[in-house]
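Recap from last week: sequence in, structure out.
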Amino acid sequence: AMGGDHAPEMVIGGLALAAERHPAARFLLIGDEQRLAPMLWRQKRAAAHCTVRHAPEAIPGDLKPTAALRLRGASMRVAIDSVAAGESAGVVSAGNTGALLALAKIVLKTLPGIDRPAMAGISPSARGDLVMLDLGANVACDARNLVEFAVMGDVFARTVLGLPAPTIGLLNVGAEEMKGDERVRQAADVLRESYLAAQFHGFVEGHDIAAGTTDVIVTDGFTGNVALKTGEGALKLISSLLRQVFASSLAARLGYLLARAGLDRLREWLDPRRYNGAVMLGLNGVVVKSHGGADAYGFAHAIDVGMDMVVHHFNERMRE
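Predicted structure tokens:
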């Protein structure tokens, strides 16, 4: 409950929305009980669907992961411990990303056969939603990691996007087979000989992300995070330029009124809150990272992603 720029108010607001969407769900809300109690009194729907567990500490956003590991009474640690104990099916947090990943790896550990967990998220494209991973959990990766990311991305796309046979692309500096460094070429060779061969598209480039050339984009965490932030910046720039254009003259304002219905649909389609909730794949438990600046609507979407992972038995399918 205590993670994020606008916590705990936005967490409880998101919980109220999630309770409406998932009436059978029950939530364990972990944080400072004295702060949470009056907010829950005002949010009756959220209060009816959750149990509060007091945690005296909260992990600051700028705390180093190594220091966070020592705070056993922090709300994030208590939440992850509840997943490890089988008390909760998963955890959703808008808190410190590095601390969440470090605690999840130490407490939950990785699934058998997985070397490193990867952070996966959903993005819009010209052909519909796609999955991209890794988004920053692993700055440096070898060929084995990239192959594992492809396997996890395949299961994630099947589970969350409902695709029966998602296509997979390796992000590279060119589409030709000789392009890229040795690790990327080795990963491609392995995938061409694997059970994913029929779904493996080959190499894709940066422009293929927005084009939706493949349903799953696989890359290392450094490149993936740069691509993610570049896309977010481009959307903000387009939004800002559109506002300037439609405010530039009387004719432009009239044009906005005529195009308003279509622009509202575009705004809804590209709303980053609809894509909030990056999943840390490969762990013995569902761990969802909400954007730290999310509002209640965005946090509710992160809860939706976690619910999809649990309801559709993502980890069981990963083990298979």
